[in-house]
């Protein structure tokens, strides 16, 4: 706690001792710390080992490993099911896409048609082609977006798997060294 007083135009600061203990001095039970650390939002729990020796020992604790593995596997399963849903939606979207238009064979009947009717038919054909191309462009954009979503899901799964693999390798290495 800090008290500020004024003496003859000068400002002085006096520090008083606070009788309450600092929040860092309070020790938490080990099982509570394990639960807190296993819920920590870090991508790699090995980063927690660098905080202090106590955290390093907690990260190597079998209970922490069990909690972390169960949470990691559940998260990976959730990501995998989301990626699978996206892939199924993509497949359905691809299966229900309209087939590409087939060119109409031009028929020549040998008779001279009116020039205005030909122009109207040509304009109608251009409108129809433009509409089909717009629909195809919309479909391609939608498919691209679906593929990007799947790509992000798979990259996240791969990242989590790499972190889990490195965590298990180091845990097994420290477990075999301690025996």
From TrEMBL:
Ranges of Basic residues composition bias in the record: 1-13
Q: Which PANTHER family match?
A: BNACNNG10540D PROTEIN, F-BOX PROTEIN CPR30-LIKE
Protein name as catalogued: F-box domain-containing protein
Chain ranges of the F-box domain: 22-68
InterPro entries recorded: F-box-like_dom_sf (IPR036047), F-box_dom (IPR001810), SCF_F-box_component (IPR050796)
- What species was this sequence derived from? Arachis hypogaea (Peanut)
> What segments bear the compositional bias annotation Acidic residues?
103-123
Taxonomically, the superkingdom here is Eukaryota
Region described as Disordered: 1-22, 94-124
